[in-house]
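Q: I have two molecules that I believe assemble together. Could you output structure tokens for the complex as a whole instead of separate predictions?
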Amino acid sequence: MKLASEERRRIFLVGGALSLIGGLSALLIGAANLLTAPVIAAADSAAQETAMKAVYGDFAASSDPITISGASYVSKYWVAFDQKENALGYIYRADGKNKYGSVALLVGVMGASESPVLGRIALISDTETFKEKLEGGYVDPYNADPTSAHLEDTTCGATHGAALIHDMVTEAKGIYDGSIAVTFADASGSSDAPSSVSASSSAHSSSGGSPSVDASAGGTAA
Amino acid sequence: MDSIRRHPHQESFVSGIIRNNPLFVMVLGTCPALAITTSLEAALGMGLLFLFVLVGSNVLISLLREIIPDEIKTPSYIVIIATFVTIVKMFCNAYLPALYNSLGVFLSLLVVNCIVLGRAEAFASENGVFDSFLDGLGNGLGYTLALGLIALLREILGTGYLTFGEIFAFLPYMRLPILKALDGSYDYSMSLFTSPMGGFVVFGLLMALLQTKNLRKKDAARAAAIAEAQLTAQEGA
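A: Yes, here they are, computed for all two components at once.
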């Protein structure tokens, strides 16, 4: 079926207008992205470093992130080092949400893989409705004494949020001790442990050996 | 006042600020007005970002109005508005991260804000670039002032303080005790006003106040017209 010339002209007009608007939009957004992306990346990296320092007081540097797939909340981990390049422990990144909002956090886990020791939690974002109660009634007491007893006690006036954080931390601990099976891959796509981390400090080595991360190395430092 | 000549573009600017205020008179854009007005800084921040989106989209739509075919008017407007919202989000995330986090989803929701879409459809698509710019500026300022007024009352009544420097990091941090002492010696704040219900109460009271003022003005004008008609009738008799 042949289109009438008027109809064809109309189609070209509409297509041309849409292309022009799309191109203009792409140009404007691209320019804005060029200007803002470095600033946003620098701010994110600074925020992450601050959060890592909140997990381990002696934190000085971290390994490259290792991506974790197959977990419900945890998406990656780093090995944290102090200034003398001693491994302090692992830092897991976890993101979770419930009907009251979402939480993103970093949590430290250290010690032997058979008996992992929990480190502090650093909240990266918290949009829970009862945010103050969650942080004041659950996260703060836990961080003052990061033990399983404080982790299990989720009665704080924001029980759903506390239960979410509890599950996120428990999953990180489960990945550390190997009770939760996940897949690891570093930035290059390799599924091995990161090259920057010595084999002895990797809780995730294929041999399943214990990491030599000292539980007292910095988990309780201010 | 016939002797005072109005600037031909003045109407485009002034109308949106008070007489046709998008929030108090047109009752548009009420969702963010209730959600983000618990803090004066957040409300003013939202207002200014809204102003940028409205002015930018009004100008671009007015520029392209002759080439946008009727069939794709609304989708084109949404693409243009979404472009400005994306730009605003990027800059806000980069330079005002505290504001970006506090506004949350309401910043993205500007894409479907009825004021922005309404001004595009009703004004920018039919008027020149300069008029559209002024219309965006007027309506944006009107909305910012309305948000600021609601937030001012809610923050004072709800928290007892007026806080600066919390969201706009470039300002020195300052907490002014108004209804609540910093040392806790007195506290007349009512936390109800920080809740959505308190938002509705403040919004309703301000709207009622503005409507009362408008009605009084109309009544006075009507009374003056009747008096003038009576005077004319008497003179005729």
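A: One point stands out. The longest helix of chain B spans residues 196-236.
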